[in-house]
Design brief:
Number of helices: 15
Radius of gyration: 28 Å
Low-confidence stretches: none
Mean pLDDT: 87
Strand content: 5-15%
Distance between the termini: 76 Å
Largest sheet: 5 strands, mixed
Shape: elongated
Length: 382
């Protein structure tokens, strides 16, 4: 039997997790309850019986976690639902005993991924769920998924460590939400204890010789002018490829010497309009009816797509006889110029590069062997 007490914010906040899940029932509105999981997660909900007699159906409804709802909000929801049931306005159908992972992925994508994440991330999550996670767990009951199942799944993708780690992160979030929805009450999280694979660095620091070889290929004029412009803009701005592909002339403030993107991977982005960018943009062609700086290669409306730019970059590297690296390496090269310069503060460098956290900035603080030698000489000669 659940404990009975007057449910208030301070009372609920003070509840501590136990070895097993437990519930506390409100002393006035008996249907209203708070559930506390061994993990420390707490959620509000109701348990209602409809009709008369001991055999009348019982319905458990979870409103949400205590982080999502205040105690007063949850109480009002409970009062409204109880009143609707008693007046016959709501008929309680017995909920299915178990939910499948197929149902979990549907709800996870609808209520979390598509609601809160960026379009590019949504596309990647949908792809991984469709191709790998759904086929592996589709018919399983959510409550039956165990750590050993997830470990086996992770091991099957050891040849692609980054993808394997990302899929575990997706599954971990989905299972955490399943707990908040009451689909895995009192059970050990199936992703707890999974050790991530070490991921190889996807981008390296381009050398001055490699950049010169790439520029030599661009100068030959064998590649589409829009591709050449996009690559040069990436090198001069340190932007992400989708930011340059979606750059519009209306984002450029010539008077304030800055470019302002209203929405990017990290939200609003403002970058300084340096002399190199001014030179490139001053001679870049403008196309009637299209505000994008880099339009589609075939002309028309819209913008150059990153999926078109990346294969072109790969071809340019082959022609320049440069070891393959992602086009994001241009952003790493740009960032390293500022993070490795002792005369520029980290805060200023972060504003120029467009980073919002020191942790992210640290991953871009590449120092070349030549720079290390220069720093060493400066210290030894002092």
């Amino acid at each position: 039997m659940p404990k009975i007490a007057k449910l208030t914010k301070s009372y609920v906040d003070a509840l501590q997790p136990g070895l097993k899940e437990y519930e506390v029932q409100d002393e006035k509105l008996r249907a209203f309850r708070v559930r506390v999981m061994p993990s420390g997660h707490k959620s509000y909900g109701v348990v209602i019986r409809q009709g008369r007699g001991r055999g009348r159906p019982q319905k458990r409804e979870t409103f949400g976690s205590t982080y999502q709802l205040s105690c007063d909000q949850a109480r009002r929801l409970a009062e409204e639902l109880v009143a609707s049931v008693r007046l016959g306005k709501v008929h309680l159908a017995c909920a299915p005993r178990n939910q499948t992972c197929d149902q979990l992925f549907d709800k996870f994508l609808d209520t979390h991924v598509r609601a809160y994440l960026k379009p590019r991330t949504v596309k990647e999550y949908e792809r991984l769920v469709r191709l790998h996670l759904r086929p592996a767990f589709k018919s399983r009951d959510v409550k039956d998924v165990k750590l050993s199942d997830v470990q086996k799944f992770h091991l099957d993708f050891k040849s692609t460590p980054r993808q394997a780690n990302l899929m575990i992160a997706i599954l971990r979030k989905a299972m955490t939400l399943a707990e908040s929805w009451g689909w895995r009450d009192g059970m050990q999280h199936p992703c707890k204890g999974i050790i991530q694979y070490k991921e190889r660095k996807r981008d390296r620091l381009l050398s001055a010789g490699e950049l010169a070889a790439i520029e030599n290929i661009l100068e030959k004029g064998n590649h589409h002018p829009t591709v050449v412009l996009a690559i040069r803009l990436l090198k001069s701005s340190g932007c992400r490829s989708d930011e340059i592909c979606r750059l519009k002339w209306s984002y450029i403030d010539w008077d304030r010497q800055q470019i302002c993107w209203p929405d990017t991977k990290t939200g609003k982005l403002v970058k300084p309009l340096n002399s190199s960018l001014v030179q490139l943009l001053s001679v870049a062609p403008r196309y009637a009816g299209n505000d994008h700086v880099c339009p589609p290669l075939g002309g028309g409306e819209g913008n150059l797509l990153p999926d078109v730019l990346r294969p072109a970059w790969k071809k340019i590297l082959r022609e320049a006889e440069v070891e393959h690296c992602g086009i994001h390496a241009l952003r790493h090269w740009f960032a390293s110029k500022f993070y490795a310069n002792p005369s520029i503060s980290t805060t200023t460098a972060m504003q120029i590069v467009g980073h919002k956290s020191v942790q992210t900035a640290a991953r871009y603080a590449h120092v070349s062997p030549a720079q290390l030698a220069t720093f060493a000489d400066a210290v030894l000669s002092s």
